[in-house]
Amino acid sequence: MKSMKINKITKVMLLFFVPFSLPVFAEEAVDFNTDFLTDKGIENTDFTKFSYANYIQPGTHLLATDVNKQRVRNEEPILFFAPDYNAELSIPCITPEVYPILGLKSEWEKKVTWLTTNNTQCLDFRSVPNMNAVGDLYTGILNISIPQAFMEYQDPSWDPPSRWDDGIAGSFLDYNMSNRLIRYENNDKRTETGTNISGVMGINMGAWRFRSDWQASGGNLNSNDKSWRWNQLYIFRAIRSLGAKLTLGEQYLSSELFDSFRYLGASLESDNAMIPPRLQGYAPEIAGVARTNATVIVRQDGRIVYQNEVSPGPFRIQDVNTFGGGTLDVSIEEQDGSVQTFKVETSRLGTLTRPGQFLYKLVMGKPTKNEHDTEGPAFSLGSFSWGAANNTTIYGGLLASTEYQNIALGLGQDLAPFGVLSFNISASRAEMGSNFDDKTLSGTSYNVTYSKQFDQINSQITFAGYRFSQRDYLSMTQFLDGRYRGLHIDSGKELYTAIFGTAFPDYNINTYLNYSRQTYWNRPSTDNYSFTVSSYFDWANFKNLSINLSAYKVESSHNNDEGVYVSLGVPLERNDANISYSGSFNRHNTSNSVNYYERLNERSTYNLSAGTWDSDKVNLSGFYNYDGNLAKLTTSGTYTQNNQSALSMQLMGGITLTPEGGAFHRVTSMGNSRILVDTNNVEDIPIKTGLTPIETNRHGKAVLMGVQNYSRSHITIDINNLPENADAVQSSQYATLTEGAIGYRKFNVIEGEKVLAVITMADKKHPPFGASVYNKDKLEVGIISDDGFVYLSGVKAGETLDLAWNGETCQFQLPQVLENNLSNMLLLPCK
């Protein structure tokens, strides 16, 4: 009896430890000496599956593919077969169609050899030294290991083009809606409302992306703009072999040299995002001060390119993604119904290009107006940026039609310790037609930009620029306004721009200055100034107090304003809460308030404030933000004594649909890439997305937004917060998506009960030690131990399970009701 007990324990130890003690990628079989196992029934022990690490029976199995621990292929049927050189092995078949995703250098295409099984070519792993492939049915992953020296260039957040994922077919609708309601407390007690909504509709088919940008507005507050507009209709795709993006349809010109305008046509341009990571592109920074809870809307040529709710006080916008250079119209729609407006005149910083690299842009089309009508002559554009030497870039371009031409040439220079300097000159010629007495206007424009970080004094000139344009120098937009629309041309003369910041670490002080001045040949100049100084400090028992002082001044022919905003914040110990004072002082009014902010949970925050407005009126306001699974909700309200009451709401969300399923979801950036996460029909599975997670819906689907194009994204299940009856066989995957893709990642998540059972065969014997139990999805849910004992996890009442060993199989069914699963031992016959 003692001998039998020892042998049972020995078997159980072998069962759980042998698979983990073998070399992970070994091909040599392991022979077990079973002489020390003296228990009866040793002949009923199956060690076949332990002879090779993670041995998988020949046949087709549903597995995902990882290369060097990075996901490169979703779950697909993979053939396992016994190669001619060793009939005891079972290896996966990597076909010539799948081979490119391995990421081997191109030189290996001529070196690798192929095996043949059932008329199918399969990669011979022996032809790549130290390359191994092991399948794991429990995790549902085929793990491939390749020496890094044989791989294409990679880094932690970038994959070579062979790994880029175009995603799956699907469609989506993203929206950003804001509503305002204002009740005026005057004699007529009138109420006004306003709605602004914008969004993107999209359809993906293979590498092609079909997109339509739209916006609408209505209500008393938007009486001059009650309309539905399709801003853009266009299609695009990545051209991997060229490292470029092809776009067809309605577009806004994006250029380092020429101001943006809208056109209908085709473009082919180098895409910096396809290059290994580095700082790419430029977006303008917009600064201002909101007097109340307000909506900031940024437009270009009437098109909304940015929209967001802000709290009272200074704001800085640094994430205007869709930008083509030129003039941006900024409006701050206050909750009291007033609107601040100003323009941001931007000049783009010449981008240095790596030595030997050549970037290009080719465009053909016709300018458009209003909705989708074209106007003016057809044009073509060609521009380039060439890394001519180690620190020198030469760039230039030509924009030409029968009636308008503009040629530009520039030089960018990295001055080593002295910063980056860029200079370009442009010359235009425009035939103005009858509106200008058939004159031909010609002129030149000179542009200098500079950027420098001063490490010694913790300062940085983020951007500094100067542009001078002659009176008769015209951009394409100015030419179209004058010749085809008969509009007065705003002829810019000089543009000064400076963005400067500095820090004083010893005193925890940061300062920021933004200045721009635009002068004109035919009207008064405009000036914008903003200055901010902030500090963190400790005082008495209070830690990390913050103080902020912001001042601004706007001078133009239609808007003159100046003011100061001050705030003091005191953090509290619980829930990221803080209490603060803020004061706003400008030409129009003076306000003071005391504010309380608190994070209720990982999804919700709120802010309450009370104070005075216009010196003597009581003002109460509140702000609430909720990051839901279905949408992001922001609401706010304001009451001002004897003046007005106002409510506003912003809702950002979308719906994504694919053949694999879909979901409603919140949106961070409209129209961008996304990943549909599938947790095998198990609901309420938390997916990590930074501070605020998302959870799968009742169909086991969730959409993950904020995915960066051509950069590796990490998708992770929060295993610490799984539902009680759910188990994630795998909790982490990767994806590198092309622009606009709908990625798809499926996780093997098992939902069900945990059961103890003893399995018997028809002849009253037990199945062999080491046999595997699989569910209908071919996932291993248990391994037979001594005398038919098995611990099953992730199973459901009434479910039929398969038992397999050494090429033989049988089935058994669980009872229709499972109670006290780990207390009662079930006796189950296998047929």
Automatic annotation (TrEMBL):
Gene3D superfamilies, per the entry: 2.60.40.2070, 2.60.40.3110, 3.10.20.410, Outer membrane usher protein FimD, plug domain
GO molecular function, one term: fimbrial usher porin activity
Membrane topology: Multi-pass membrane protein
Cellular component aspect of the GO annotation: cell outer membrane
Record-annotated PapC-like C-terminal domain positions: 758-813
Locations listed in the record: Cell outer membrane
Spans traversing the lipid bilayer: none
Name listed for the protein in its UniProt record: Fimbria/pilus outer membrane usher protein
The species this protein was found in: Proteus columbae
